[in-house]
Specification:
- It catalyses: [glutaredoxin]-dithiol + arsenate + glutathione + H(+) = glutathionyl-S-S-[glutaredoxin] + arsenite + H2O.
- Keywords: Arsenical resistance, Oxidoreductase.
- It is an enzyme of class 1 (oxidoreductase).
- InterPro entries: Arsenate_reductase, Arsenate_reductase-like, Thioredoxin-like_sf.
- This protein is α+β, with helices and mostly antiparallel strands and about 110 residues long.
- About 35% of the residues lie in helices and about 15% in strands.
- It has a 4-stranded mixed beta sheet, with helices on both faces.
- Helix 1 links the parallel strand 1 and strand 2.
- The radius of gyration is 14 Å and the shape is globular.
């Protein structure tokens, strides 16, 4: 079973979901805007993907600037707290398969774990 942390309004996320389905994967779709992740879940997912918390945060959202999240002095814990409070800040899609976890941006990154 593969898991995709998905935003159906995101074209990249839809493309990756389709790639998983086309590859024959049974996919659990987690719409993280409807079912937000807790801070510890976010931290585990980010670590498993081998990325930094900064790489996992979506800087293009207005709330990113409004909260001053571009401040380099903010700790990972402070960034995770912001992501927990505002799930739209989670960069997507993040995919988990038996071959690993990746932030699939760009979409073809999913091929590494298919």
């Amino acid at each position: 079973m593969s898991v995709i942390y998905h935003n159906p309004r995101c074209g990249t996320s839809r493309t990756v979901l389709q790639a998983l389905q086309d590859a024959g994967h049974a996919v659990e779709v987690v719409e993280y805007l409807k079912t937000p992740l807790k801070r510890d879940e976010l931290a585990r997912l980010i670590a498993a993907a081998g990325i930094t918390v900064r790489e996992a945060i979506r800087s293009k959202e207005a709330i990113y600037s409004e909260l001053g999240l571009d401040n380099p002095d903010l700790s990972d814990d402070e960034l995770l707290q912001a992501m927990e409070a505002h799930p739209i800040l989670m960069n997507r899609p993040i995919v988990v398969t038996d071959k690993g976890t990746r932030l699939c941006r760009p979409a073809d990154v999913v091929n590494e774990i298919l």
